[in-house]
Structures are given as C-alpha cells and as structure tokens.
Design brief:
By secondary structure, this protein is α/β, with parallel strands linked by helices. It is built from seven helices and 25 strands.
Length: about 375
C-alpha cells in the first residue's frame, strides 16, 4: 500500500466522527454502565475505560485499559495498552494497542494494529479484517478477506473469502518454526496467499477451497516493508496521542485554548517571533540556572514546561487548522471544538509527514504554537 493511499484512507475513515450529538468523558476512570444510553458520539479519555451501555453513534477513545461490552451503533476507534471488545459493534472497529482481544461481533471491517491480536471462536467480523503486528490468532469468523503484515499467525476460524498475509519472521523465536499455522478447525473459502520463508504448518483437517500460494520474501523488500509498517504505526500512534491530549486540553481549558488559537491567527508574525525566542532562549536560561546550583529545581521545572509547551504547540496548531476548516467549509459545525481538534490534527499531522518538507512545516508549527502560548502568558 502506498503511503499516500494509506494516509488518505485514514483521513476518510476517521471523518465519520462528526455527528449531530456527542458526549465527552475525560477522567482517570470512565464508565458507561448497563442501561445508560449515550446519544450520538462518545469521546472518552482516561486510564480505565469501560462501556457496558449503549452508544447510538461512534466511540472514539484512548486509555490504558479499554473494555467495550455494550452495544455501539457506529464505529469504534480506540488506542490503548489493552483493548477488549466483547459487545456488538454496528460499524467498524479500528484499534491500536499492545493487546487487542475480540470476542464480540463487528458488523463491518476490523483494522487491528498491535503486538498481540486475538479473536475467539465466538467473534464475528462482517466484512474484511486487517492485522498488523507481531502475533495474531484468528479463531473467529471473518466474512470476507483477511490480510495484513505479521510476525506469526495462527488461523483456526472461518474466512469467507481469501487470506493474504506477509510475515516478518525475525520475530520468530525459532528459525525453523513456520510463521503461519493453519489449525484443523480452519475453513478458507478462497485462496491462501502468504509471503514467508517456510511453508505453513497446515493441519490435515483444515479446509482450503482455493489455491495455496507461498512467495519467498526478498531480503531487501522484507526490510523495506518492516520499516514502512513501523512508519505507519508511529504516525498512527502520534495522531492518537495528540487526540488524547487535545481532549484533555478542551475538557479542562476550553476558553484558554480558544484565546490562544485566536491570538495565533490574529498575530501570526508576533507568534512566530515569540516562538523563536522561546525555543532558543529557554535552553540558555536553563543552563545558567544549572550552573548556579541554587537554581537546579527551577531549571528542571523550566525545562520540563518547555518540553511540554513544544509538544502542545503542534496540537494547538491542529486545533486552529480544524477551526479554520469548519468555519470555511462546514458552517453547521463551526462551534464544535472537539470536531475541529479531531479533523485539524489529522490534517496537520499528515502534512507533517510529507517527505522532505514535512519537518520544516512541523518546525514552523512548533514556533507558531509556542509563540501563541507566550503571547497568551504575556497578555495574562
């Protein structure tokens, strides 16, 4: 998949977050109990997220532990350390995390990015399933195609059409261990195509109705694919992380965010100027404080705040970009700061990822956002 194609797909796939109603929940623990109905979209951020009730729109969440056992009418788009889905999803599931477990039903597509991806025998995926990670165990039913890039995989469920997998076998613990295992309960109604060094371990009871084709990986191509997968993964994580911080900023400091982005838009030149000063002079000030010994605590605090401000700068620019897009092209939603944040961060971070010039634009964004923060502090 070409870079531009994937980035465009991400932008298009995530735009359904816009709905007429939404609910924002940001806390250490977010809980939607049984019997509770969330009208419209649910935006949630916290350490532990549990959805046992019903959501009539999409669920967009980020946290350490995420559990969705209720019913979601739309899509579920989440990033976290552990993601467990045992409920019913009416749309698609897009998840990024260390461990992703699916025991419920997904009506449409599943896109899973994680170290360990597991679907149990009780799970169903209505359409296609994309898996990218170190290990996958697919024991449930997939309505159409299964494809992706993995280190190892075990197939024990039913695949409605074809399987197309590529394996990076450097993750295997044993050099002579096949990357792909087909269990006796597996049913593949189409072709089985995979790229691996060794033949798959296929149980005699497994049913493969189409052709089986193994392609030997080229060393250079395998290395290139691995780097490309890591690049996509890194960008996806950075967008999710920015969304989490954006939700926190809007939830607790909405008015301050509006004031800073207004200053950035109305005073572009001064913002860039103050941004340059803050970026270059702060390390010098920190160094002076360090050599005075007495100023060590203040030096560490100043340096920490400086790093935080730099990271938040690009998020503020994303919010500003989103506000501008809504004001110019989506007047009905121009007052939705969360929607502006979601769309603006997608657009901004994809622009930052453009080869050769993206880092220059990202640097200007840091200067712009950092200057906006300095202007707001100066004004206060």
């Amino acid at each position: 998949m070409k870079k531009t194609t994937l980035l465009a797909c991400l932008a298009v796939l995530l735009l359904p977050l816009a709905a007429s109603a939404y609910s924002v929940k940001a806390d250490n623990s977010v809980y939607v109990p049984k019997g509770e109905v969330v009208e419209g979209n649910l935006y949630a951020a916290g350490s532990n997220l549990t959805v046992e009730g019903k959501v009539t729109g999409d669920v967009f969440c980020a946290g350490q532990s995420i559990t969705i056992s209720g019913e979601v009418a739309g899509d579920v788009i989440c990033a976290g350390q552990s993601i467990n889905v045992s409920g019913k999803i009416g749309g698609s599931l897009r998840a990024a995390g260390n461990a992703i477990n699916l025991t419920g039903q997904v009506a449409r597509n599943v896109m899973a990015f994680g170290a360990a991806i597991v679907t149990t025998a009780s799970s169903t995926v209505g359409w296609d399933m994309l898996t990218v990670g170190a290990f996958a165990q697919i024991s449930g039913n997939v309505g159409r195609d299964l494809y992706g890039s993995l280190g190892q995989a075990t197939l024990a469920g039913q695949i409605g059409k074809s399987v197309n997998l590529r394996f990076d076998e450097r993750n295997n613990r044993k050099a002579d261990q096949p990357a792909l295992t087909i269990a006796g309960t597996a049913v593949i109604n189409g072709d089985l195509k995979y790229t691996a060094k060794l033949d798959a371990a296929v149980d005699a009871k497994a049913k493969i109705k189409g052709q089986t084709l193994r392609t030997m990986p080229k060393a250079f191509a395998q290395k290139s694919d691995f780097k490309r997968t890591g690049w996509y993964w890194g960008k996806l994580i950075s967008i999710f992380s920015a969304w989490v911080l954006g939700l926190v900023l809007i939830s607790f400091w909405r008015e301050q965010v509006l004031k800073i982005t207004d200053l950035m838009l109305n005073k572009i030149g001064p913002s860039l100027g103050w941004g340059v000063l803050a970026l270059l002079l702060t390390p010098i000030i920190v160094f002076i404080l360090l050599i005075t010994i007495i100023g060590l605590p203040l030096a560490f605090i100043t340096f920490g705040l400086w790093l935080i401000a730099i990271y938040l700068s690009k998020i503020l620019v994303g919010i500003l970009v989103g506000r501008s897009l809504l004001n110019n092209f989506w007047l009905a939603k121009k007052d939705s700061l969360i929607l502006a944040m979601v769309i603006g961060i997608i657009v901004s971070y994809l622009i930052f990822a453009i080869p050769f010039i993206g880092w220059i634009i990202a640097l200007l964004a840091v200067l712009w956002g950092l200057g906006g923060i300095m202007l707001a502090l100066k004004k206060a």
